Protein: Protein nucleotidyltransferase YdiU
Organism: Nitrosomonas nitrosa
Amino acid sequence: MRDDKNRILRCEAYTSNKAMTISIDRTPSKTQPNDMKPNKQYISNTIGWRFDNSYIRLPDSFYVQLHPVPVPAPRVAILNHALAASLGLDSHALSDEEAASLFAGNTLPEAAQPIAQAYAGHQYAHFTMLGDGRAILLGEHLTAAGDRFDIQLKGSGQTPFSRRGDGRAALAPMLREYLISEAMHALGIPTTRSLAVVTTGESVLREALLPGAILTRVASSHIRVGTFEYVARLSGDGEGVKTLADYVIQRHYPDVAGADNPYLALLQAVIARQASLVAKWLLVGFVHGVMNTDNMTISGETIDYGPCAFMDAYDPDIVFSSIDHHGRYRYSNQPHIAQWNLARFAETLLPLFHSDPQKAVALAEEAIHRFPAIFQDHWLTGMRKKLGLFTEESEDRMLAENLLTWMHQHQADYTNTFRALAEEGVPGEGLSNEREFVMWYQHWQARLARQPQSKQSSFSLMQAHNPAIHPRNHHVEAALAAASEQGDYSPLQQLLSAVTHPYTDMPVHQIYRTPPSPTERVYQTFCGT
């Protein structure tokens, strides 16, 4: 065990200079709190569950076995039949009552082995021992093709990791995660997904009494940078980290198993996936909002849709999270934070890189310092597609950055500006004749003319990479309020239909392309805990 003042890796641009000493008071108890009554009622396998639970075969210090806490009156709020079908599940075989009971955790699938996972995390650069404080992993479902997915209930009651929390979730934040995660999937961005949201028949206390709910989340896995941090703190000899790393290689990165240094190859593979992921975020104007190390998956999927949002007017310094007072997780800082988080991941693997600590650090630093170049390559490749560029020229980065600078100066809408260019148009009224834009537009047209592909091919490329619709915050908040406060899910369903077809510009969805008026703008979002 070592404390943060002994942090080794240097990532000077993004690390905190503060030294912290963290002590671990206890290993989480393997027993359940007294008020937890395990639900032993199982549901028949009528919908096609195929559980093969590998995580529970890891050392028992990695998790706690327990059942979800039953709720009094579950009802299905929304059920993702399309996702269920892609998993090989026949969700239509369930009655409303059976579906509600299943996705509330009142009944469990056959072969489920529910656990709460242990992990740690740097939250706003401060190390904390965490764990699933309101989530239960039911198990791992295998599709017919052999793909493995975690099935997790979020808001399923207290666990030994709840840290005085109630273990529950409110309806609006769970519907928000459902909506945004499905929108991200439709945009082609790696993400956890949402299978169902059920109301519980109970209220939870946040700023006020709110209707309770449980989300069923589907993920390639829930292993995080913070999982490695937890295991590294727990096992000073490095054996626990090796066990976890071997498991991750087998589950997510089997191609690196035969490398000369498989653990260094694992780090490099995770760096590559995260660089690609964060580039995709920036290309659609997405702000995660809470990029703590416990919210960075090793698989490279976006996870935890708390204070996240898509920006309307382009602003590289935009912040939505109500608690991010210093802008640590602002839009433009997301690549830097990803590199910072990956440095924390690399630190946990140091004993596996080389027996000589100095050589281990050198190998890790070399890998971490490659992140900016990898990220920039992904970002520029994506930006070329957004601008209809098939070929590569040295001025392409400046062409993209000059457009963004102009958009920032004139508060131009990020999504609509790119979509207008893709539709052979120009930005909104009063901006198209602005001198700086005209100059940029002429440079862009000349750039298009220098490539062999036709302009029509360029516009087709742009339309495939510039969404017409994203989940605009004012529409999201209105839909969530209607569902949570009035029990009216029709605005949510209509918005969901639009954002899950982001590249299809249908007249019925035109309202969702409209930027907010000054009174409709949403400046803060909340995590819901």
